[in-house]
Amino acid sequence: MNFDFSQVAIDTALALKVPMTIAKRNCAIVFAHVKGVIHIAASEDTAGEVKYSLLRYLPEHDSISVEIVETETIKNSLNKVYGKRVNRDGGLTEESTAVRMVRELLSSAIINKASDIHLEPSDTSSRCRMRVDGAMQSHSQYDSADHHQMVSRIKVLADLNISERRLPQDGKFSFYSELQSRSIDIRVASIPTKHGEKITLRLIGAMELPDKLESLGFDEKSVKSIHENLKIAQGLVLVTGPTGSGKSTTLYSFLKHLRKSEDLSLISLEDPVEYEMAGVTQVGIDHQRTSFSRALRSALRHDPDVILVGEIRDAETASIAVRAALTGHLVLSTLHTNSAVTVPQRLVDMGVPAYLVASTLNLVISQRLVKKLCKHCQKETDATSYGRSYRTDGCKYCMGSGYAGRAAVYEIMEIDNTIRRMVVSGQSEIDLHRYLQKNKVRSLWQEGKKKVNEGVIDAVIAERVIGRVDGLTQL
Ligand SMILES: [Zn+2]
């Protein structure tokens, strides 16, 4: 297979070990350090010498491998990693070390698709970790002086009191992302620790929504069924799963699909706004001042066709959402349950009468997010409880991690008349599950098994996230 630089996840912490001027002069980027081998992408002209020019900046290694990549491609990557700072005369602008370090840190987080950045001081140094795909990853190490400077810089950006180091503070600022050519919001929280201030940054709205539902992991048949259900003018569409299962990404993708028709009025109530979306009235819910239920009540006065409610977490919100779904609105929301078949009973437990659940619910999707295997280094392995499985060793494409992104594993329950009758007559989730099985609707576990067998996801992680056996089928 030819080397394809566009598929590489660049190890930005490694790349940034080389100063920008040196990297640009050599038209080269150090992008991976896997099993003792350092991988460098360089242009045809510089590839021969680049090893020697960059050597003093590289960490300890056994060997260096240089890949020749088109000059333009490298220049683009260099701009993403280091930022493009050109002044009016076309020269590079000067900036202080702290300003540069904070900018590089934020750019790295955006390139790595991190949701949070943690700057944690210890007695002699400070470590920086990022949350990527839901898991914490080490990013870099700073000495205490640099940590202190970066903290001050971040506090200035977020309009916090720099001299106050003994009390927790919070604030926010905007950062222009070169990668996405737009500003993203960053929420800042500082807290004093024994060794100095710890800073946590949350990147809001930095995520890119996929253009197609297929990219989230839905197959063609499921996408068709989802689109059919989104055409229905009224009713309830719910996405369920534990925290971090990608529920809101799925909901936003539905909204993105609905946004295509210009004759709909769309309102979304979110906590917080995670993706910015033109054409949608987005309301961030500040729980100290208001609640989903109050915001939902006022949203209904704005004549919406479609309302996205971030989460149904109390009886009042459930009741208003169901009434809205009954009176000519399409309501999209999330609910915290483990499977699709438990949703009707959960709504009943929240005080919604069973006949209203039956008449408003249109579609329920239960989902989990599971790390995707890097397709460049996967190999078939011994069967697990899922049967045929694959494992990865880590390669230059995946920063040696063996993974690349995450895939949604889901089950889809379309509410037909039989299910409506079953809900009204109070039949159990096991009955619902049996009915779905009879109709060849894949359960979460069956869908997970399929994705493991196809080599899309990791069996070990799937077993942890979804379970070793199909829980409901065993009953
Ligand atoms: Zn790999």
Automatic annotation (TrEMBL):
List the SMART domains hit by this protein, alphabetically: AAA
Keyword Nucleotide-binding annotated:
yes
UniProt-recorded Gene Ontology molecular function terms: ATP binding; ATP hydrolysis activity
Q: Which UniProt keywords apply?
A: ATP-binding, Nucleotide-binding
Q: Where is the Bacterial type II secretion system protein E domain?
A: 300-314
InterPro entries per record: AAA+_ATPase, P-loop_NTPase, T2SS/T4SS_dom
Pull one GO CC term from this UniProt entry.
Answer: plasma membrane
PROSITE patterns the UniProt entry points to: T2SP_E (PS00662)
Superkingdom of this entry's organism?
Bacteria
Q: Which family does it belong to?
A: Belongs to the GSP E family.
Please identify the protein, giving its name as recorded.
Bacterial type II secretion system protein E domain-containing protein
Tell me the organism's taxonomic lineage. Bacteria, Pseudomonadati, Verrucomicrobiota, Verrucomicrobiia, Verrucomicrobiales
